[in-house]
Amino acid sequence: MDFALTEEQKMLKAMVCDFALKELEPIAAEIDEEARFPAETVKKMGELGLMGASFPEKYGGGGGGKIEGAIVGEEIARVCASTAAIHLACTSLATYPIYEFGNEEQRQRFVTPVARGEKLACFALTEAGAGSDPAAMETTATRQDGGYFLNGTKIFITNGNEAEIILVFATIDKKLRHKGITAFIVEKGTPGFAVGKLEHKLGIRASSTAELVFDNCFVPEANRLGKEGDGFRIALEAIDNSRISVAAQAVGIAQGAFDRALAYAKERQQFGQPIINFQAIQWLLADMATQIEAARLLTYRAAYLKDKGLPYMKEVSMAKVFAAEAAGFVTTKAIQIYGGYGYVKDYPVERYFRDAKITEIYEGTSEMQRMTIARCLMREG
After folding, report:
1. Which domain holds residue 38?
2. Of 65, 96, 120, which closes a domain?
3. Is residue 75 flagged as an active site residue?
4. In the prediction, which pLDDT does 271 show?
5. What is the 3-state secondary structure (H, E, C) of 59-125?
């Protein structure tokens, strides 16, 4: 297998790294502390083509695939996990299924403005009683002449406060459970749609996490994605695709924390010498670096399989669970290397530590990933 990036991918990586260091790093701590959405830097990401890196040029994108998306996500998360969350929720989670399952008119209307960086999108599936079990969904879609009336509430929606394009899932019949779930595209400003409570979070604080309320919100039939009952399949495919991006985000968080811990270990003096001279610190750094490399390889393998059109469910679950837990391990050890300084907000590893936790939860918890892996292994056996 060839593990080398192409020249174009290397150029993309360098460009995103430069952007992150110049535009994101100076404000990362500030927007985290203030829980402030970085509208200007998100706009600049769009202007650079980062929102469309994984979409075809026909729809305003850069013509890349999931490997390019993973490169962008990792390099952004290496500096600011909040901005990486905004990016992945908009592109991999919300817009990808519109591209994959939408008709040509829907792709032109909704994929193109996202890929060009003109609009943000969000993915509205989760409810208070329907997290890992979307078949328990309560949001309903009642058919009327020319469309549907949506009624219900979604929670924990990343970009929910800013998104102009909302991919929302509702059931046409609760008795049908997952077979009744249907996907709809709702545009901001539609009567009956409103943003509710904004969550105050542990990490990724600069990305909004919102409640979305649908109260007799009329959606024309032209905005239905796929057929009635296709929503469950669409949602699963979107989440599988986005798990690659979450794994890349976790790798970026881990790499960012490691970079800072390594630099600190070279500078921090104790007992008359840099602490990196002590074997205990060396072994911590060795374990951290090994975890990061393993997580990155698993992530790129899943992205490779996805780009080749090959089955990747088991591999993406492996990548997601391993990378998320690697991020938790690395950020914890980074704080340990910093000692007391790592526990205060003056140093960035405290933020990396808080940001890492969400990667074990969203787009399927680590427990759900292990269930998926086990089911795949049972089928293979």
Report:
1. 7-120
2. 120
3. no
4. 96
5. HCCCCCCHHHHHHHHHHHHCCCHHHHHHHHHHHHHHHHHHHHHCCHHHHHHHHHHHHCCCCCEEEEC
Residue 136 and residue 215 in one domain: yes
pLDDT per residue as tens digits for the range 90-149? 999 999 999 999 999 999 999 999 999 999 999 999 999 988 888 899 999 999 999 999
Residues 90 and 130 in one domain: no
Half-sphere exposure of 32 (CA within 13 A, CB side): 27
Into how many domains does the chain fold? 3
Domain end: 178, 208, 232, which one?
232
Task: Supply the pLDDT for residue 4.
Answer: 87
pLDDT of residue 157: 98
Q: Considering the candidates 57, 211, 363, 380, report the single residue annotated as catalytic.
A: 363
Q: Are 184 and 220 contacting, i.e. CB atoms less than 8 angstroms apart?
A: no
Q: Which of 145, 135, 197, 198 is nearest to 169 (CA)?
A: 135
Angle at 362 between CA 310 and CA 200, to 5 degrees: 155
Tell me what percent of the residues of the chain surpass a pLDDT of 90.
97
Predicted TM-score (pTM) of the model is 0.96
Name the β-bridge partners of 169.
183
Give the mean model confidence (pLDDT) for residues 195-219: 98
The CA angle 74-370-241, to the nearest 5 degrees, is 40
366 and 250 within one domain: yes
- 151's enclosing H/E stretch is strand 147-158
Question: Is position 1 within any domain?
Answer: no
Distance CA 335, CA 329 (A): 10
Q: Residue 74: which pLDDT band, with cuts at 50, 70 and 90? A: very high
* Residues 193 and 168 reside in one and the same domain: yes
Residues 6+ apart with CB under 8 A from 178: 134, 135, 232
